[in-house]
Amino acid sequence: MNLTTLQVDPAVLAEGVNMMWVLVMTFLIFFMHAGFAMLEAGQVRSKNVANQLTKNLLTWAVGVVTFFFVGAAISTIVGAITGGGSYTLADAFGSTLGGDSGAWVDWLFGAVFAMTAATIVSGAVAGRAKLRAYVGFTVLLAAVIYPVVTGLTWAGGFLDALGFHDFAGGMIVHAVGGIAGLTAAWILGPRMDRYNADGTVNVIPGHSMTFAVLGTLVLAFGWYGFNVGTAATVFTAEGGELALGDFAYVGRVALATTLGMALGAIGASVVSLALTQKVDTLYVANGLLAGLVSVTGIADVVTWWGAVLVAFVAGAQLPLVFRFVERNLKIDDVCAVFPVHGSAGVIGALAIPFVAVPGEGPTAFAQVAGVVVITAWTIGATALVWGAFKAVGQARVTPDHERDGLDVSEHGVDTYPEFGGPDVATDGGVVRTDGGRSSEIKMVTAVIRPDRLGAVKKALAEVGAPSLTVTNVSGRGSQPAKKGQWRGEEYTVDLHQKVKLECVIADVPADEVANAIREAANTGEPGDGKIFIMPVEDALQVRTGKRGVDAV
Prior knowledge:
- The chain is α+β, with helices and mostly antiparallel strands.
- It contains 18 helices and eight strands.
- The strands form three sheets. A four-stranded antiparallel beta sheet has the order 4-7-3-8, with helices on one face.
- A hairpin with a 2-residue loop joins strand 5 and strand 6 (489-493).
- Helix 2 packs parallel to helix 5 (101-124) and helix 2 packs antiparallel against helix 9 (209-228).
- It starts with 9 loop residues before the first helix and ends in a 17-residue tail after the last strand.
- 45% of the residues are buried.
- Residues 1-6, 420-424 and 428-433 have low confidence and may be disordered.
């Protein structure tokens, strides 16, 4: 049997494998946007969830188009100007507008990094920023603010020539987003009722810890694409043979990423326990992300013990920096984007010279210079943009819109139209044939637990009283107050979330209606609610003009 050796050009094979690797990692990084959406949606109030989700969707939609037509070219131009190189506008814009398949793959990999920096800002300005202002800022960040930073660094600018090191964007991507978010939140001012007249803090809990933790885990999963994916060259072709490219250190990157998320969570847990005597769930989640941010810029050269140390510090600083921003600076950073992305990114960038493998780390001077220049540019550019929006009255929604919630005022939607209860269709109910019609009109009013709404609706339909009005309310009775905690801050919950039902009847005995509600709403625990029966003097039907019993 004759064997024929298959001849393959090593350069072609290397190019194909490298391109496929970059694309797979790019798609994994894109999935991080789902994590950001869930993380931010969980940390805002229920009346602002749709607004937060919309901002995350538009960040990608608007930002990626802007980065394609403008941002990528600006990065090239800034890199050439500040790095002492040369460029032509045709070359700068041609890499995207007139590029080839390889150029577009490289652009897409850069685009998902740019959109990560942009979407971080939305978490800081949640609950009060106008959608048009946020979208406008996203356009400018994707077109100018972020590309200038990458131009100074990854595109060969003067910080790169100085020796500034940032492997996968701990400073360039995450710290830029965190610093921009903090600056925007400062310009906008805090949410209504966030601070009392004496400067003390009011806790405004988010609506879903589940969403926040789910978003955290999705981000952690996508982070492997962020860090490991930056080791973008799997193979190189040398002398007609294949050799490992950046994959020679991919194991170090994967290890640092894994240790980073773990030690960040542990660091935040330890400090949370020391501050509040409890391990705060949100601090653990945020600390995990802060640990990841801190090792993102150093994962290619860091020692294993360096990754452990830096990530632990990044997680530990999170509760302390958040409290400082909240209490001392009086900046309402809703999703803690600065301690998660900003200060954690700075810590990683400054730590590289001291925790890197000997002979592979940059100088402390280069890192300090990079942090100072990037921070100054980001604060200045962000303050200019949001300051301009504020000056013309376009930065913040009106007090009425903020009070009503941005879901309704900005989008016309109600994210939770059924108060979180099951959707039980009860139109029509049953037709009574037992002569139950009365000459009296009565109103049965009940205050019950929200989770019993579906069962009560069904019970009312079964006794022939399907018509009712439902209101989402809060109040207190015999149910005791309890203590809540949100990101390490304790607050008292003495007004409990309830649902109020109002049922006006004439065909059905009021006692039957009241008993039906009681049986369906009863859990046997304090706080099940109360039922009130009251006479109604008269009724008037709008459509027909009928009065009294006939109107009911």
